[in-house]
Design brief:
This protein has 81 residues and is α+β, with helices and mostly antiparallel strands. It has one domain. Helix content is 26%, strand content 23%. It contains two helices and three strands. Strands 1-2-3 form a three-stranded antiparallel sheet, covered by helices on one side. The longest helix has 15 residues. The radius of gyration is 13 Å and the shape is globular. It starts with 16 loop residues before the first helix and ends in a 7-residue tail after the last strand.
C-alpha cells in the first residue's frame, strides 16, 4: 500500500491522559508518541503488548532514569485510537 494513502486514525484522549502524557520526560514522550503514531496507522508498535485482563487494550512501556512510564490504548474502537 502506498504510504501516502494510509488512513491515520484520530487519537481520542480520555480524562487527564493527554495532560499526563505531556508531563512525561521528553525522551519518553517521543518514544511513546512514535508508538502511538504507528498504532494510528494500524501497525503494531514493537514495544506494545496486550494488557492482561483487558481484551483489545495494549500497553506501551518505556523506562527512563530509573522510572517506568506506561500508556494504554484501545484498538477496538471504530475509527479512532
Amino acid at each position: 500500500m502506498n504510504d501516502l494513502l494510509r488512513t491515520i486514525k484520530p487519537t481520542v484522549f480520555v480524562g487527564s491522559s493527554k495532560k499526563d502524557l505531556r508531563a512525561f520526560p521528553a525522551a519518553v514522550r517521543s518514544e511513546i508518541g512514535q508508538s502511538l503514531f504507528e498504532a494510528q496507522l494500524g501497525e503494531h508498535p514493537r514495544n506494545a503488548k496486550p494488557l492482561k485482563g483487558f481484551s483489545g487494550v495494549l500497553e506501551i512501556c518505556d523506562n527512563f532514569d530509573g522510572d517506568t512510564y506506561r500508556t494504554v490504548y484501545r484498538t477496538r474502537l471504530e475509527g479512532v485510537l
